Amino acid sequence: TINIMIDGIETKVAKGTTILEAARDLDIHIPSLCYLKGVNHSSSCRVCVVEVGPRLIASCTLKAEEGMKIQTNTKKVREARKTSVELLLSDHDRECLSCSRSGGCELQTVSNDLNIRTVTYVGEKSNQEKDYTSPSIYRDASKCILCGRCVGACGTMQTVGAINFAKRGFDTVISTAFGRPLEESTCVNCGQCIMACPVGALTEHENINDVWNALENTSKYVVVQTAPAVRVALGEEFGLPVGTRVTGKMVAALRKLGFDKVFDTNFGADLTIMEEGTELISRLNSGQNLPLMTSCCPGWVKFMEHNFPDRLDNLSTCKSPHEMEGAMVKSYFAKKMGIDPKNIIVVSIMPCTAKKFEGAREELSNESMQDVDWVLTTRELAAMIKEAGIDFVNLKGEAFDSPIGEGSGAAVIFGATGGVAEAALRTVFEITSGKDLETIEYTAVRGMDGIKENVIELPNGQKIRTAVVHGLGNARKLMEAMERGEKTYEFIEVMACVGGCITGGGQPIVDARTSERIDIKAERAKAIYTEDEAQTVRKSHKNPYIKALYDEFLGTPNSHLAHELLHTHYVK
Ligand code: HC1
Ligand code: SF4
Ligand code: SF4
To answer: By CB atoms within 10 Å of each CB, which of 179, 361, 394, 395 scores lowest?
Structure first.
């Protein structure tokens, strides 16, 4: 250990600890902007400077050394911090009142905390470019502060590297290769850059008004569905603690917004398990296209298309749960209700920005109708609820509509890494053995290790070696290990976001300081597993509404009709 003194307080820290971390352990708050734990340590903003001897040094990269004496709150420090922030503000689009990050902007917070009341340096503005081309991500360079947090998220964490620093000096920008529109880049739409951005330079491509217009249109029947991960995060937008489950309130709010039916994507997740489980069993029998890789994450699918196009046949042909559900709303449900599917609009509320891209993919339509018409993020739903003046926190819980509103516990765990694999194993084992299992928790695939493994043996002796990865950096590692022949599996679950959809790019944004104190993904995952335990039906194949769907409409899993409506194929 190393002995240091911060603001007169002696403390011992481990080798390698930065002064910023050491101070936070002592509850001394040093403001920072470009620092994001585990993602970015560039010391470019210089807001976190401290005084060490005669020098001012950025504390986020300064490592503790024996005997170091640090001052975090001197006149010189405060003035240096103010100057750094004022310089950022001078080149910033300061339309705070109409900015989507207003109230949650870290630049706003730091500027307020430092008592900056006037912006001294006003001059020429640098890059003002706005890029609306991506269906998922909107970039506004006029708000960018060049902290590099998005570059860390996209490059280091996701190993996509769609965006990076370009040009020099005053002209420095965050840009795609050759300054191309984001839509034409290698971006996979995961939105992790948005989650990292401290300001409003990166946001989702908003579709709120499209959905308001649909709700206003009296000739349309507007159905909404909500992803598993939304219910354990939406509450944060209304001040509830991280990990609060708000399923019932969310349903009540959606009804108040005027949707004709409020369905649960969990039904689609159960359906996915029936189709994908059957697909796994048939691939095990034929030995073809193994390992089967999950295809419900559109960020992962696009990553595969860009990086491993020769492996696309390994992807499951199943559409993702909300797409399956959209297809069932426009066929099975429409028929039951006697509504022309052309007059139905399906809106998906997702924790995900990539789902906006997925919703528009031509592979995901039937008879020239998209399965899903609009995708809103958790944040956009919160914005609509606020706009409508709904007192969310005090709403009484309501239940989803039938028949597409009923999902099992296996479905809800889709929202956390390992959930799809666990749900599939619960069903595949029981279907092949014909026995009901008492213990249904596959804890080996739970938790936040980057790569998790599990082996089960089916009654006929077939082994299913399963790998679960989350975060595209981990996915790349696993794919490369397989290419080198070091690893062999029969089944692989991949989610592009670290932690799974619970930390998707459309979820409530947590500022850097809070994310150091609270393990957001662990808290949201805990809520997901509690939601599973609270369900009476916890296996997809036991969901009575799924059984009815097959009896009344689809026939059997992987039937001809099921293939037509619920499966697709991605090609190079
Ligand atoms: Fe997901 Fe899925 S789990 S992909 O993360 O398979 O978005 O929550 O809805 O479709 O069910 C997202 C979450 C979600 C799908 C399901
Ligand atoms: Fe990179 Fe994902 Fe952002 Fe695209 S959405 S730029 S892939 S972090
Ligand atoms: Fe979207 Fe989930 Fe994939 Fe993230 S892990 S890109 S939230 S589907």
So the answer is: 394
